[in-house]
Amino acid sequence: MIKRLIVGVILSGLLVPAFGQGLGPLSVEERVQSSRQSQTVNDEALMMLLQQLQQYEQELNSLRGRYEEMRFELDSMKQADRDRYLDLDTRINALSASAGAAPSTSTTGPVGTGTAATKATDPEAERAAYMAARELLYASRFNDSRLAFENYLATYPQGQFRDFSHFWLGESWRSLEKPDANKAMEQFRIVIERYPDSTRVPSAMYRLAVLQTESGKTAEAKVTLNRVIQQFPTSSEAGYARTMLEQLK
């Protein structure tokens, strides 16, 4: 009996290390496989985070661009309010200066186109036509404003508001229910090329670049935006141009 117990103890002592040695390599394989699975999970999570980060960056750029457009619209509205004030002030001064003048009753002079010729040389009639067209634009009656600005440009070939009228005509074409980008860009180019000293040139350049981008002419848009920055570095449009260039990279 005692011998059997001793033999049993000896056998159990031999079997336990052998069993342990048999499990050893299997445990290592399991640990390696587990480590690989964990690394795969980590890689997938990192990839998802990178994709989300890229998506957030795109959304941020889009929001930044929209913000710049809203800033530009606000500046345009402020400029329009200043234009209204200056127009009103000029009209009041003109009326005050002519209040004491006696009307001319002379019938001498060249006989030409009659009423049309008189209208075309009447500063007050010209100003009234321009302001009426612009009020239509402010009222979002874009097709009516388009026709009114075209009529002004045809009636007053040497008018003092021609640069502004071409600019607003471009805005009218751009803002129609069915916009015509080509005709809008044509009007903005007229402002840039024919009236280089006009205060509307920076805005016309920026508007042209926006339309070029929307039309898929990215290379041309970049050239236009760089012109804004180079020629009008301190203007608000230059700031919008820099932001837009960053988005086009």
Q: Could you describe the 3D structure shown?
A:
By secondary structure, the protein is mainly alpha-helical. The protein has a domain at 1-64. The chain has 9 helices and no strands. It has helices at 2-98, 115-120, 123-138, 142-155, 162-175, 181-194, 201-214, 218-231, 236-248. Residues 14-23 and 99-115 have low confidence and may be disordered.
What's the helix count? 9
| DSSP summary, beta strand count | 0
**Distance N terminus to C terminus?**
91 Å
What proportion of the residues form beta strands (DSSP E)? under 5%
* Rg (C-alpha, Å): 38 Å
Major pleated sheet: none
Low-confidence stretches: 14-23, 99-115
Instruction: Find the structural class using helix and strand composition.
Output: mainly alpha
